[in-house]
Amino acid sequence: MCGIVGLHLRDPDLEPRLGDLLTTMLGEMTDRGSDSAGVAVYGNPDWTPAGSATVTVLADLTDGLDARTLATRVGDHLGREVSGRELGATVLLTAGTDPQTLASAVRTALPEAVLVGLGSELAVLKGVGLPLDLASGFGLPGASGWQGVGHTRMATESAVTPAGSHPFSVGPDQCIVHNGSFSNHASVRRELARRDIHCDTLNDTEVAARFVAAQIALGAGIDQALAEMAGVLDGFYTLLVSTAEEFAVVRDPIACKPAVIAETDRYVAMASEYRAMAHLPGIDDARLFEPEPGRVYHWRR
Amino acid sequence: MTVTPEQAFAPRDLGPVGDAPTAAPHVIDVREAGLRETNRILRESDGTGRYLLTAPRGAHALAVGLTEPDEVVIDGPTGYYTAGMNDGAHVTVNGNVGVGVAENMMSGTVRVTGSASQSAGATAHGGLLVIEGDAGARCGISMKGVDIVVGGSIGHMSCFMGQAGRLVVLGDAGDALGDSLYEVHIYVRGRVESLGADCVEKEMRPEHHTELRELLDRAAVTGVSTGEFRRYGSARTLYTFDVDNASAY
User: Fold this and answer.
1) Is there a contact between A226 and A239 (Cβ–Cβ < 8 Å)?
2) Is the dihedral of CA A43, A49, A50, A53 positive or negative?
3) For A56-87, what is each residue's pLDDT tens digit?
4) Measured between CB atoms, does A256 come within 8 Å of chain B?
5) Whose CA, among A95, A202, A270, B18, lies 20 to 30 Å from A296?
């Protein structure tokens, strides 16, 4: 199982409602995965202020540690002010620099923390528990933004931990959520390690995210990166891949896992099942279709 | 997509459903009544009822396991297994349906005015399933006697291991149509992407034109000539033991 939802807005008037619409989508997919969940929101001015970089980490906040002390540690390394805020099990660290510079300061200053998202537009929030409880802990219903993706997990390939929850974001402003499983992720993980690309978890989807990010870093477009991935990773999947410009959906070559897309002048929405989109404005007049197997569908901002 | 009970039960919406009940329509708001209560009301009906289900909002397993010839109109898109195991009821969905519509139907009619997801009519033994739009992958997989008429196109691996019944497609068929086919008669008006193992094109003899005409009429499809279709069926080489394979055992 597992459930996927995504909303790519075309109409700026809908942006204040992004988090609210996404929360209902996520809640509707609880039946497909209730052990953990996560979301990624693009362009929320509160979480990812314009002109700054944001890194999301999972860190052990016991022993008197809080988001502020983590931010101070990173700030001391970076030589500039870093702000920190705690949202559910995740901590957002924001600074007026570029995402890679902030990410390397985080890795040095907080070696025990797991970095689960980086970018200038992207906030990744994830955890273990019921999707709607997590969404409420993140403050998702009140969040604005121009694009969001979400995942409800029924774990099969790795442990039920916040780090094993989707989305997986390993390249700047990139994000992957996955319904299905990859059967050869262990051997692909070893291949990547030989190229000095390392995973933080034993999760199969993280391997796909690392693979796709490596292709994009080499200059591939999203279509090409996903086509390369389909040639190397074996398994069944529906994937939703997003970047600061794009929103893409691909299913495995025999379309084992469900996917429905709804397109209107105001948005492109994607979900594992129609019922996750039944509340979207104008859904009765949307162009609804199921993506063909093995074909990459993508929309540009 | 909101209709009044009068519109919902106008003959044009129902198609040919035999001796239609004439009782006053009973309107059930699925969101208010809930799935279990909705299905309980339908299941306890005596076969003379007419039901209009509103606000289905993609719910799974709506109108499943009905055993009486009631008329049910669902106004809006539904989720998985809509009208599954139907045995005699006449169910119309105004909208799209999810995976496995009319799966394992025994008798009755299921009509979808929109498109259907994967595995429409899977393993169904009897009755008539009409999908006015497209059907996704594996339409009619392992069908065992149902008649399926699709107004649009069907996806890959359709009619896989189809055992009995008829599948009529006015549009195109995806890859591997009729793979490992037994005795289903397949009629396709458009292009077939590829045929599955042991599925071959066969001649349209007079009895096939007659059979196809009768199916199109029952599905209320008009303006189409049977001469526009090609027929596909089993080459019957896979389902008997081939002595050349004896060494594999």
Assistant:
1) yes
2) negative
3) 999 888 778 899 999 999 999 999 999 999 99
4) no
5) A202
List the Cα angle B232/B234/B238 in 5-degree steps.
150
The rounded distance, in Å, linking the Cα atoms of A176 and A210 is 10
A228 within 8 A of A215, measured Cβ to Cβ: yes
Residue B220 backbone phi and psi in degrees, to 5? 60, 35
pTM of the shown model: 0.90
B141-174 tens-digit pLDDT:
999 999 999 999 999 999 999 999 999 999 999 9
pLDDT of residue B2: 59
pLDDT at site B4:
67
Beta strand A122-128 with A147-153 is: unpaired
Q: Which residues of A touch B79 (CB under 8 A)?
A: 273-275
Residue B110 pairs in a beta bridge with B91, B129
Cite the active site residues of A: 2
The span from the CA of A250 to the CA of B120, in Å, is 22
- Taking CA–CA distances from A272, the nearest residue in chain B reads B98
Distance from CA of A122 to the nearest CA of B (A): 31
Interaxial angle between packed helices A204-217 and A185-194, expressed in degrees from 0 to 180 and rounded to the nearest 10:
40
Count of CB atoms within 10 A of residue B164's CB?
Answer: 14
User: CA A263, A206, B98, A274 torsion: positive or negative?
Assistant: negative
Rounded to whole angstroms, how far apart are CA atoms A205 and A163?
11
**pLDDT mean over B18-43:** 86
> Which pLDDT score, from 0 to 100, does residue B16 have?
43
Q: Which two tokens stand for residue B95?
A: 């909208």
ipTM for the whole complex? 0.83
The Cα angle at residue A171 between residues A82 and A173, in degrees rounded to 5: 65
Please say whether the beta carbons of A251 and A293 come within 8 A: yes
CB A40 within 8 A of CB A175: yes
State chain A's maximal CA–CA distance in angstroms. 53
Q: In sequence order, which residues have a C-beta less than 8 Å from that of residue A189 and are 6 or more positions away?
A: A199, A207
| Short-list B119, B125, B153, CA closest to B139 | B119
Residue B17 pLDDT class (50, 70, 90 cuts): very low
The token pair that represents B209 in the structure block? 């034109």
In this complex, is the C-beta atom of B69 within 8 Å of any C-beta atom belonging to chain A?
no
Q: Contact A25/A281 with Cβ under 8 angstroms? A: no
Q: Which residues pair with A249 in a beta bridge?
A: A240, A297
Q: The tokens of A83 are what?
A: 């702000």
Cβ pairs bridging A and B (under 8 Å): 45
Closest CA to A40 of A30, A52, A26: A26
Residue A34 — very low, low, confident or very high, per pLDDT cuts 50/70/90?
A: very high
CB of B103 within 8 A of CB of B119? yes
